[in-house]
Design goal:
This protein is 57% helix and 0% strand. It is built from 4 helices and no strands.
């Protein structure tokens, strides 16, 4: 049983020494990668994909309820409007 314990201690020691071998720069880089991003990139589109998809479905079939009617009124769509 002491042989198993010595073997485990040796493996643990090797694993810990491997972790210590990483340089300070590598640890800082790994830490930086784990941090949440400070900025978020957003792209403004001219057309709302939900509105476009809803209008496409409405052109194919009649909607049972008007759950998207209010949503379709909100965005500015130029000359196209909800049907």
């Amino acid at each position: 049983m002491s042989e198993d314990r010595e073997k485990l201690e040796k493996e643990l020691s090797e694993l810990l020494s491997e972790v210590e071998e990483t340089s300070e720069e590598e640890r800082l880089e790994e830490t930086r990668k784990r941090l949440p991003h400070k900025y978020e990139i957003r792209i403004q589109t001219e057309l709302d994909p939900i509105v476009e998809e809803t209008l496409k479905y409405r052109s194919m079939a009649k909607e049972i309820d008007g759950r998207y009617d209010e949503y379709l009124k909100k965005p500015a769509r130029g000359d196209k409007g909800p049907e």
